[in-house]
Design goal:
Layout: H1 11-40, H2 45-78, H3 87-118, H4 124-150
């Protein structure tokens, strides 16, 4: 019922936020899946690790930026009162801000891992570390998606 009373100028920023969040969860899932497959298939570990690290660099970062910009823009358009502090908004901020730090750490590890993979002196370990971080991020963002849709008080 809340969607029917939302002002029209909120629709586009909210669309960008939801689209960015969907892309973020999807690309994190792809990175996590490729990493787990690399653990299970040692023969294909280098190719799968390279895929997961490149997906992180080219998919997760732009999706995170789009999600975060859409979130801030949506909140600024909503004109919430100063004392408005719902739990779902707090969960969203906590997961987004902590996720930013973990995404930054993952990007650094991915850049180092890709560099090592090019020199053929390893790099699969960096991919595993990135995969573990992405699995943790995926779990946190699933909680955030629940909070944004269920809107607990």
């Amino acid at each position: 019922m809340l969607a029917s009373v939302r002002p029209d100028d909120v629709n586009f920023p909210l669309f960008l936020h939801v689209f960015g969040a969907m892309l973020l969860v999807g690309t994190l899932f792809a990175v996590a899946l490729a990493t787990v497959l690399a653990w299970r298939r040692p023969d294909d570990a280098v190719g799968l690790t390279r895929f997961s690290l490149r997906t992180l660099l080219m998919g997760v970062l732009p999706a995170y930026i789009l999600m975060r910009i859409g979130a801030q823009w949506t909140e600024s358009k909503e004109n919430f009162p100063d004392d408005f502090d719902p739990a779902w908004l707090g969960i969203g901020y906590i997961t987004a801000d902590a996720g930013a730090l973990l995404v930054l750490i993952s990007l650094i590890l991915a850049a180092l891992g890709l560099r090592k993979l090019r020199s053929e002196s390893g790099g699969v370990g960096f991919g595993r570390a990135v995969g573990v971080i992405c699995i943790l991020l995926l779990a946190a963002y699933i909680v955030a998606v629940w909070a944004m849709t269920a809107k607990p008080t």
